[in-house]
Automatic annotation (TrEMBL):
Protein name from the UniProt record: Predicted dithiol-disulfide isomerase, DsbA family
Domain DSBA-like thioredoxin stretches: 3-204
Database matches in Pfam families: DSBA (PF01323)
Domain of life: Bacteria
InterPro entries in the cross-refs: DSBA-like_thioredoxin_dom, Thioredoxin-like_sf
Organism for this UniProt entry: Pedobacter xixiisoli
PANTHER family: GLUTATHIONE S-TRANSFERASE KAPPA, THIOREDOXIN SUPERFAMILY PROTEIN
Molecular function in Gene Ontology: isomerase activity; oxidoreductase activity
Parts forming coiled coils: none
CDD domains (UniProt xref): DsbA_FrnE
Keywords for this protein: Isomerase
């Protein structure tokens, strides 16, 4: 069963939600039957950090709150992150436009490294305080992922994977996504936010059980085992 996750690398709850999902999956007996597919989403697609703006300044300006309120808000999120073993450093965090980071994730997905790219970008942004809108930073991350640096550079300097990112965002609009993380099980059930592990287990189990029944019902059932009068790559049998 496929779980699609609309997420933004700039979103701390997406990082926390990823951990909750991963923990839930480790506790489910059918975890090997689950396929994860990451989808792009941008919380602030027009943002550009040109003056070295800090996260607190960004939150204060964008949400119309004081710097003290911004710090208090991030302290609560840090505590949530710590509970799942994540070290988020808001003090030195660099707000950035995530469009090119999403392009890198799509590139990595084409090489079978989608989840690794998502994880590495989250860590780079929230723990290592890297500017994920900086080309050199993204190229270093690509190298860390085992991707070809020159190939990634050529892709990011072109318009490669731009349409894929935009299509993910378009899909989110069609599904009515208004915030991330947003988890969709088999395009039937949705879960919004960094929900508790138990909520993930319940939603995934419900989705999986229905998916499994649908798979069984869609299977062709042979009426007999007679293989005569058939043709295959080796010829025909009478």
């Amino acid at each position: 069963m496929k779980i699609e996750i609309w997420s933004d690398v700039m979103c701390p709850f997406c990082y926390i939600g990823k951990r909750h999902l991963e923990q839930a999956l480790t506790e489910l007996p059918f975890k090997d039957s689950i396929e994860i597919n990451w989808k792009s989403y941008q919380l602030n697609p027009d943002y550009k950090n040109e003056d070295g703006e800090s996260l607190y300044d960004y939150l204060s300006r964008s949400k119309g709150i004081s710097l003290e309120q911004a710090k208090q808000m991030t302290t609560q999120v840090s505590e949530m992150a710590n509970n799942v073993g994540l070290d988020i450093d808001f003090e030195n965090n660099i707000p950035a436009n995530s469009f090119n980071a999403h392009r890198l994730i799509h590139f990595a997905a084409s090489k079978g490294k989608e989840d690794d790219a998502e994880e590495t970008l989250f860590k780079a942004h929230f723990t290592e305080n890297k500017d994920i809108d900086n080309l050199e930073v993204l190229l270093d991350i690509a190298l860390e992922l085992g991707l070809d640096r020159s190939e990634v550079k050529a892709a990011l300097e072109s318009n490669a994977f731009e349409e894929e990112v935009r299509f993910d965002i378009y899909e989110s609009q069609q599904l009515g996504v208004r915030g991330v993380p947003f988890f969709v099980m088999d395009r039937k059930y949705a879960l919004s936010g960094a929900q508790p592990v138990e909520a993930f287990k319940q939603a995934i189990t419900q989705g999986y059980n229905e998916w499994k029944v649908a798979q069984e019902n869609s299977s062709l059932k042979s009426l007999n085992t007679n293989s005569d009068n058939t043709c295959d790559e080796n010829g025909c049998e009478v």
